[in-house]
Design a protein that fits this description.
The complex is a heterodimer of chains A (254) and B (335). Chain A is an alpha/beta fold. Helix content of chain A is 39%, strand content 26%. Chain B is built from 15 helices and no strands. The chains are: A alpha/beta (254), B mainly alpha (335). Chains A and B meet through helix 2, strand 6, helix 3 and helix 5 of A and helix 10 and helix 11 of B.
Chain lengths: 254, 335
């Protein structure tokens, strides 16, 4: 489900935490409608790369481009750069491991918040939009409840709806099922699959769910010690991987 | 059975089998059967009765008290007026102070540091005198209209002093409240593309406010009592608080005990009322944090539902037991 239009472009990305170089020169291109799964051992730099894409982490150096908004890592966050980062983030949806719903707002208000506050959308229009996306993740009937009353799986689906309501060009998922009880993982992966197959959303997913990757991903990217060791379609990864590190990791998680 | 003859509730003292309970045992079981709250009320009443007897014994002049009661009680409006205006101003100062303390901007950080350090590090009474008697001296060096800006009436100086002083203390409260909002909330707001201002207004401060309201309520209650300090600056009678009013009439008629008992009573009743309201407010802003309450039932003040279903979820919000308890109480009140 990919064509030639590049939505996310990452070029020679480096990230240091103090003296530790966590990301050591990463290049990725993600095309419109493509689903990319990033996997690898913890500490391999996959989450950091994902968080650098929307500047939740400041890249030490390198270039990030999302939907034509091009930013270089490093340097000070000037007013102009902050505004550019904001424009980039508006075009990028993010789903966190810990959901991070706003606890003082109802489910519906959580989803309406972005369109109203950031895009200055009229309230009625935002409400309609929010209900549409809540319905998409199967939670329209929970619209008036506060997040604390929802299960982890439901909260994460609301978080997906909240990100979708900004109508982003790409959705970033940072280990979206890692904080969930095993029986709740399926509903979240199901919602993500719907996103990929029915809405043809461009997605970058950091996950250990190899079943999901096999079924939904167009491309899998294996991270090892801060670099991309290997990438390719799922069939390739699961059957003909070239590197013993990849093999070893897949054997461990499958 | 002997124990049944006592005819009291569930708690029974051990009695020897087959023997009627002694008088002592009867009294004991009667005492145990009285609810705790009732006992507490009895204790309070006893304290007041003892105090009343004591006052009567020293020749308390109740006629004089009735005569001057209204004059002293009227001072309550001054307390409320001054404390309300000052707490609003102090809240604004505290919010700015806290944002300054959390800012990376050296000017904001430095100014707020100086502000909190000075106003927390010096006595309130000294600050009041500095503002009331010290500032005019600066004013003298200036031309009109600036000159008159530095000459404040006692009540205005009092409000300025209270605002600055309490604002400095409340800065720490606001800072802690803002810092209690988890990092994930900031990231979620950032990821949506919010500006700093939007993030603060829509995400961080509403959550911080909930944490901050109980201590701010306490500050307000404490501030009402500190309004009495303004009396020392000597404002006119109209703007006098119960303490100064008591001072005026008590000294003049040598009825100091009666006068100050009434002044204390006015302050005490005020703080009691606001302690009650503070608790209610605390419950109200707790919405969204209590399981078993959704938006609609909450709106009608009810609770119930499937309380406690599921496990608390990491990273979203803390389950606040005190709010939950309040919620249970409210639900019961409505039934």
């Amino acid at each position: 489900m990919s064509n030639d239009q590049v939505v996310v472009h990452v070029e020679d990305l480096h990230k240091y935490f103090g003296d530790l170089e966590v990301v050591r020169g990463v290049n990725i291109e993600v095309h419109l409608g493509e689903v990319v799964v990033m996997f690898g051992r913890s500490g391999a730099g996959k989450s950091t790369v994902l968080r650098c894409i929307n500047f939740l982490e400041d890249p030490t150096s390198g270039v990030i481009e999302v939907d034509g908004i091009r930013l270089e890592g490093g340097g000070h966050r000037t007013r102009a750069k902050r505004e550019q980062i904001r424009q980039l983030r508006i075009r990028t949806g993010m789903v966190f491991q810990q959901f991070n719903l706003f606890p003082q707002l109802t489910t519906l208000e959580n989803v309406m918040e972005g369109p109203i506050t950031v895009k200055h959308m009229p309230e009625e229009q935002a409400r309609g939009l929010a209900l549409t996306f809540l319905d998409r993740v199967g939670l329209a009937e929970k619209a008036n409840q506060y997040p604390i009353r929802l299960s982890g799986g439901q909260q994460q689906r609301v978080a997906i709806a909240r990100a979708l309501a900004m109508e982003p060009k790409v959705m970033l998922f940072d280990e979206p099922t890692s904080a969930l009880d095993p029986e709740l993982i399926g509903e979240v992966l199901g919602a993500m699959k719907t996103l990929a197959t029915e809405m043809h959303m461009t997605m970058i997913v950091v996950t250990h769910e190899m079943g999901f990757a096999r079924e939904v991903a167009d491309r899998m990217v294996f991270f090892h010690e801060g670099v991309i060791l290997e990438e390719g379609p799922p069939e390739h990864m699961f059957q003909h991987t070239r590197f013993p590190e990849t093999r070893k990791f897949l054997d461990a998680v499958l | 059975m002997a124990s049944e003859q006592t005819g009291v509730g569930t708690v029974r003292p051990p009695a020897a089998p087959g023997r009627p309970p002694t008088a002592r045992q009867r009294v004991e079981s009667l005492v145990l059967s009285i609810p705790y709250r009732v006992k507490l009320v009895v204790v309070w009443i006893a304290i007041f009765v003892i105090l009343a007897i004591g006052f009567a014994a020293v020749g308390f002049d109740t006629d004089w008290m009735l005569e001057h009661l209204w004059f002293i009680v009227k001072g309550a409006w001054v307390v409320l007026f001054v404390a309300l205006i000052s707490i609003v101003a102090a809240t604004v100062l505290a919010l700015l102070g806290a944002l300054g303390r959390l800012s990376k901007n050296p000017v904001a950080y430095g100014v707020s540091g100086f502000y909190t350090s000075f106003f927390r590090g010096t006595p309130l009474i000294v600050q009041l005198f500095l503002i009331y008697l010290g500032l005019p001296q600066i004013g003298i060096a200036l031309r009109e209209p600036y000159r008159s800006w530095f000459v404040l009436s006692a009540i205005t100086a009092g409000m300025v002093g209270l605002s600055l002083n309490y604002g400095a203390y409340m800065t720490e409260i606001f800072r802690a409240g803002i810092q209690s909002v988890s990092h994930g909330q900031y990231e979620a707001a950032d990821a949506l593309g919010m500006t700093y201002k939007q993030k603060m207004q829509r995400v961080v401060l509403p959550q911080a406010l909930r944490v901050v309201i109980p201590p701010v309520g306490n500050e307000f209650i404490a501030m009402m009592k500190d309004v009495a300090l303004i009396a020392i600056l000597g404002q006119d009678v109209f703007w006098s608080d119960p303490f100064r009013r008591a001072n005026i009439v008590g000294t003049q008629d040598f009825r100091n005990l009666e006068a100050y008992v009434m002044a204390a009573g006015v302050f005490w009743i005020l703080t009691a009322i606001f302690t009650f309201f503070q608790r209610r407010l605390e419950t109200k802003v707790g919405k969204g944090y209590v399981r078993g309450v959704d938006a609609r039932t909450r709106w009608f003040g009810g609770g119930g539902g499937d309380r406690g279903v599921g496990r608390p979820t990491a990273g979203i919000a803390v389950h606040d037991p005190s709010s939950a308890i309040e919620q249970v109480k409210q639900t019961q009140d409505h039934e």
